[in-house]
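User: Hi! Is it possible to get a structure for several chains at once, not just one? Here's what I have:
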Amino acid sequence: MLRSFSWPILQVKKMVDNNSGGEADNFDWDTEDDLEIDNYAISAPSGLSTPCGEAVLGSAEAGSSGNSPNSKIIDHFVGMGFSREMVAKVVEEKGEENSDLILEALLEYSASTLPSSSNSKLIDHFVGMGFSEEMVVKVVQENGEGNTDSILETLLTYSALETTASVQQNPDSGNCSSDYEGSLLNDFSDFDSFSESEEIMSPSSEEERKLLHSTKMGYSEAEASVAMERCGPDSTIEELTDFICAAQIAKAADALFPLEDKPFSNGSSHKKRRNWGYDLLLRKKKLKLEKRFDEDDDAVHLPNPMIGFGVPNEPDQITNRVLPEAALGPPYFYYENVALAPKGVWTTISRFLYDVEPEFVDSKFFCAAARKRGYVHNLPIDNRFPLLPFPPRTIHEAFPLTRKWWPSWDTRTKLNCLQTCIASARLTDKIRKALEDSDGEPPLGIQKFVLEQCRKWNLVWVGRNKVAPLEPDEVEMLLGFPRNHTRGGGISRTDRYKSLGNSFQIDTVAYHFSVLKDKFPGGINLLSLFSGIGGAEVALHQLGIPLKNVVAVEIAEVNRNILRSWWEQTNQRGTLTDIQDVQELNGDRLEQLIKNFGGFDLVVGGSPCNNLTGSNRYHRDGLEGKDSALFFDFCRILDLVKCIMNGTKSMII
DNA sequence: CTAAGGATGATAAAACGA
DNA sequence: TCGTTTTATCATCCTTAG
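Assistant: Yes, the chains can be modeled jointly so their relative placement is included. Here is the combined structure:
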C-alpha cells in the first residue's frame, strides 16, 4: 500500500506546490542557459531521468494524443529543423521506434546532401540563439555560411544597433533583445501548463515504461531531465522541447562545422570566441533580469573558509538553524558528495532532499589533507564535539620522518584531496632527474614544475631529490581509518587506493555525528547506502555510539569484505546485513527490515561522485551521469523509509 | 597494472574605466 | 578612488588505452 504512494509523485507534487506560490526562487533564468545548451549537447549524458522529467513528458504525450504516433515523431524532427520530406522518408526507412537511429540518419543525410540544407540548419542554429530569422538569413548571405564566427559577430552588431533604435522603426526585421524579452515574459506567464491532478493520478510504479516513452519522443532521458532542470519544474512542454531542440541543433551544427576554426585558432580559443558571442547575449539578458531579481538564487556559493556550520578551533560557529518541516526526522539523514560539482548540481540535490541547505566543509580543518565536500543532513548542529585525540593537522605532524628531506621552497602545510589514483613511477623519476641536474637550489622553473606536480599528485619528500606518492596505510591514517583497515583479505593495492579515495574523512563525519551520542545511548540502527569501506560505521564506532543493526548497501565485493572483517574484528554486538545492489532495496525489503528492528535512526549515503568531479575528463555528466544518478536512489530509499516509518508509527499509536 | 591524459568552476589578481 | 571586467591560478572521492 505504501509503495504505490512513492517518491516520484511526491516530488512532482512538491515542486508544483513550491512554484505555484508565485515564487520563482527555484528557477534558473539567470544563468548561462545558452552556454549550457552547448555543454549538455556535447556531453550527451545518459542516465536516469528525474521523476519530474518523466512526468512532464508523459503529460505532453497525453496532450498531443490526437495525433498519430507517426505524425508526432515526424513533427518532432521537423521541429528540429529537418525538412518534412526527409524526415518522412527516414522514418519510413528506419521505423518510428528508434529515434536515435532516425536522428543519426537525418544528420548524415543533411550533411551529405545539398549545401542549402546545411544552410538552413545554420540559420536554425542562430535563430535558436535568439536572433530573428530574417536577420540571420541576411547575415548568412552577406558573410557566406563558411564562417560562423563572423556571422555571429555581425549578428551581434546588428542586434546591438537595433536595441538602441526604436523597435517600431523596423517592424519587419525583428529584434533580438525584444525577442528575448518576449520569450521571457512568456516563460513567466506560462505556469498553467499542466494540471497537478493529472500528475498525481498517473501511475508511478512503471518507471521503465516511462523511460521508454520519453525516449520514444526522441529525447534521451538525460536530455529530458536536463531540460526540466534548466527550464524549471513546471515549464510548458513547448519550452522543454525548445530547449532540447536547441541543444540538438547546436550539436548538429557542431557536427557540420567542426573544422572551420582550426586554421586560425586552437580548440580552446575557438571555444572562448564562441563563448564570447554567447556572453554578449547573456549579459543583455542578465541586465534585464537583474531588475527583476536582486540575486542569482540558483548559485550555491561555497563558503570561504569552508567550515560549514563550524569546525573545532575556529570562530564563526553557527549553532542553530531552522529546517524545513518536511526534512525533520526521524530518521536522521546524511548525504555527502563533492563540493565542486558542476553548476546546478547542489541546487538539485538540495531540492530533492527537502530543501535542506548543504553544509560545505573542507576536511583540512580536521586532518592534514584537504577534502572539500558538501553534506546535506538534518542533524542538530549544536554541541558538536570532535574525536580525540586530534589527528595530525599538518604534513609535518603526519609525516615527521620526511621533514629533513623537505626543501625550503616547498611550503605546503596541507596535502590536497586524496584521490583514487597515484602518481606514476616515471613522474617521480623525472622529478628526481630534474633536481639532480642542478646542484644546490634548483632554478625557479624547475621549482615551479616540481611543486605543480607535487600538488597535483600529493607527493611527499622521502629522500634527497626524491618524492613519492602516499602509501595506502598513510592514506588510511589521514582519512582517520584504523591502520590496515583496507589491507589484506585479497584486495589489491590499486583497489585500496580506489576505495580509500572514495571514502569519508572520519573525523569530519564523526564531528557531525557526535550530536547523536546523547540521543542514542543504547545504540542506533543505521542504513548505510553506498557504504564503501564503512566510513559512517567507523565514525560512529569511534564516537562510542553502539551499532545495533546496520544495513549496508555496497556494490563492490572488496568493500563489503572490508566492512565485514572490520565488523568482526571490532567485536560488534549488533547485526550487519549487507546488500549488494541498491535496487534490491525496494519497499518490500525495507518494510521487512524496518519491521524487524523498528526503524532506522540514521540513513547515511555518499553517492558516487565520478560524474561530478573535475578529475573526470570523460564523463563529467553531472547528476544525470551513469553512476552519480544513484543519488536518486538515495532519495527514493530515504522517502520510502520515511513513509514506512511514519506508517508503522501511526499504526502503533 | 601502468601511464597518459584536459576540463570545469571557484577564487585571486590584475587591468580597465569612469 | 571604486566598481567592473578580464586574466591567471588553483584544485579536483577519475577514465581509457595499452
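Residues 39, 268, 301-302, 304, 340-343, 424-427, 492-494, 614-618, 620 of chain A lie near DNA strand B (CB under 10 Å from a C1'). Residues 1-69, 111-118, 163-297 of chain A have pLDDT under 50 and may be disordered.

User: Great, thank you!
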